């Protein structure tokens, strides 16, 4: 299965949970953290690394919170050095 990950810009999130219900892998959760606007924000549950980088969350989010990364076949390793992405990545971002 293709692996992916998402970067979440929490300050943009308003906790509407659309992405949580839309994610086919069920890996998005409402966190206990609040952003500066007083909204509980979404986080990625990276247990089992089930995010596929499908970008459904980025498409459905009305506030452009997500940047999506997807592994490419010739570079399967996720970069341990990367807080904001992975090696061999392709980014899908909706502005
Ligand atoms: S759809 Fe966007 S704004 Fe709504 S909870 Fe998800 S990340 Fe936050
Ligand atoms: S990229 Fe797809 S699998 Fe990953 S969090 Fe977004 S909707 Fe879920």
Description:
Mean pLDDT is 84; it is low at 75-89. A hairpin with a 5-residue loop joins strand 2 (28-34) and strand 3. By secondary structure, the protein is mostly beta strands. The protein has a single domain (4-93), classed as Alpha-Beta Plaits. The chain contains two helices and five strands. The longest helix has 5 residues, at 18-22. It has a three-stranded antiparallel β-sheet, with no helix packed on it.
Summarize the entry for a quick read.
This protein has 95 residues and is mainly beta. The chain has helices at residues 18-22, 56-60, and strands spanning 4-8, 28-34, 40-44, 66-71, 89-93.
Per DSSP, the total helix count is 2
Tell me what portion of residues adopts beta-strand conformation. 25-35%
Largest sheet: 3 strands, antiparallel
Number of strands: 5
Please outline the helices and strands.
Layout: E1 4-8, H1 18-22, E2 28-34, E3 40-44, H2 56-60, E4 66-71, E5 89-93
Antiparallel strand pairs: 1-4, 2-3, 4-5
The protein binds iron/sulfur cluster (2 copies).
Feature tags:
binds iron/sulfur cluster, 5 strands, about 10% helix, about 30% strand, 3-stranded antiparallel β-sheet, Alpha-Beta Plaits, mainly beta, two-stranded antiparallel ribbon, single chain, about 100 residues, 2 helices
